[in-house]
Amino acid sequence: MSPLTASTTAPSLAVVILAAGLGKRMQSQLPKVLHPVLGQAMLGHVLDVAVQLKPAKLAVVTGHGREQVEAYVAQWASRHADELAGKLEPQCFEQPFQGGTGHAVECAKPGWEGASEVLVLYGDTPLLTVATLQDLRNSRAGRPLSMLVGELPDPTGYGRVILNEDKTIACVVEHKDATEAQRQVRVINAGMMALDAAFLARSLPRIDTNNAQKERYLPDLVAMAAAAGEPGMAHLLPDQREIQGVNNRAELALATQILRDRVNTQWMLAGATLDDPATTLIETSAVLDADVRLGAGVELRGKTTVARGALIERGCVLTDVQVGRDAHLLPYCVATEAVIGAGAHVGPFAHLRAGTELGAKVKIGNFVETKKARLGEGAKASHLSYLGDADIGADCNIGAGTITCNYDGVNKFKTVLGRGVFIGSDSQLVAPVTLGDEAYVGAGTTVTQDVPAGALIVSRSPAVIKEGWTAKKRQRQLAVKANKA
Ligand code: UD1
Ligand code: MG
Q1: Is 158 left (phi over 0), alpha (psi -120 to 50) or beta?
Q2: Structural domain that includes position 40
Q3: Is residue 462 assigned to a domain?
Q4: Which of 54, 170, 419, 482 is spaced 20 to 30 Å from 259 by Cα?
Q5: Torsion of the alpha carbons at 388, 389, 394 and 400, rounded to the nearest 10
Q6: Is 103 designated active site?
């Protein structure tokens, strides 16, 4: 992959994500931007939004925890290889010391040079939407810059935005540099800015460090634009929750809650029933059809998809699972990297591990564990079984307590069942082993050899009945006791 070089004629966008900060208040070994919100690193959410703006260039400024952050960006890019289609490669730029937000943007200069417009985002503000960022860009309307602003009941700590009467911005004053009167202003800089790239390139070197933090502040560009007679625009955010930043773990939980509610509402409006949305967790990468129903405490993680009519009852946790039409998961199933066929019936308390593929109308009952197991249409394993490395044909019936013995301590082996095979309860299938169509395994059999189609296999020593045995045994036991006394 090679980054697109922006053409000099067509307008092109570069997105710069600032992620070099320490995040001291998280008190964590993990860099702040890598802490997960609704199952995905904050930086991942910001990258997701950025890429939807179809930028020609995408830059991330790294500093604290640089190696981890850069590794994450590479991993994110490989997960999104399809979307990026070889046209865009996020590039990381090191900010060697915390010189401020202006300094950070300068460190990434090769990452935005050549574009006509630069959008600056923060890696610790994961709730921004594409629509808001498009509105921010549009609000610039040819001016040098537009700044996303909020109005907060308690603006403590934020840069205060001093507006002109026509909603253009006179200047931004950081909390630490503000006078008492300026601190009364409740309009704050959310941090995101859309900038004309040529204005940015010529103005950045003029930002000084004459402030309380001795840093080069990016918002100083606002006063420069105003002084040049081209004041920037303020774009007021209608929903303040979007700019919820994360500075500590309480705000991390708050951001997760806000995003979870937003995603849940979106799916409810799209036709999904959530019995108890306050406890339902749907990651942003999951997709639901209309007319699905989710019980309380259900978690849909990763690239899980749920088809129309499916019912997933209370407490099921699904990661990268495809749930087919009208499938029914009873409470408390855990499934990972699995496919559940249309009309299948699973659980309660089933564990479908990676590589499980259940055909249409398969039934998996309680305390059944599957791994790399394919079950054909209509097959049933209703109780207490382990099915690993197994290829099970349509309409097989796996009795209670059946175990595939797939592992010899070193290697894994496969169990193959044709269609309509009946496995009696409490049987062991010692792999590698193949059973032909409609083979029949008697209850309690240890199958160690292949079974031809239509044949019975049973391994049982003949049972013996001894009439009156219990009473005689009792007499002998009592005699022993009497002798001891
Ligand atoms: C900044 C803004 C402030 C705004 C607030 C919104 C400046 C000077 N101030 O303040 O007006 O109200 O955000 O949250 O811009 N970063 C770097 N390198 C640096 C400094 C920061 O990459 O040298 C990154 C941080 O990782 C973070 C973002 O920039 O993602 C903002 O930095 P932060 O230190 O949180 O700035 P604030 O003081 O909150
Ligand atoms: Mg901050």
Answers
A1: beta
A2: 13-243
A3: no
A4: 54
A5: -20
A6: no
Q: Which of 64, 80, 175, 383 is catalytic?
A: 383
Ligand 1 site-directed mutation target among 32, 69, 101, most atoms within 8 Å of CB: 101
Q: How far apart are CA 143 and CA 133, in angstroms?
A: 16
Given a contact cutoff of 8 angstroms between Cβ atoms, the answer to whether 394 and 421 are in contact is: no
- Residue 4 banded pLDDT, cuts 50, 70, 90: very low
Output the pTM of the full model.
Answer: 0.91
Q: What is the pLDDT of residue 9?
A: 55
CA of 190, nearest ligand number: 1
Mean pLDDT of 153-161: 94
Q: Please, which residues bridge with residue 58 across strands? A: 15
Could you tell me if the CB of 23 is within 6 A of ligand 1?
Answer: no
Closest CA to 83 of 121, 47, 136: 47
Alpha carbon 420 to its chain centroid, in Å, reads 39
* Nearest-CA residue for atom 37 of ligand 1: 158
Atom of ligand 1 nearest to the CA of 124: 30
CA of 485 to the centre of ligand 1 (A): 88
The closest residue, in CA terms, to atom 30 on ligand 1 is 122
CATH of the domain at 373: 2.160.10.10
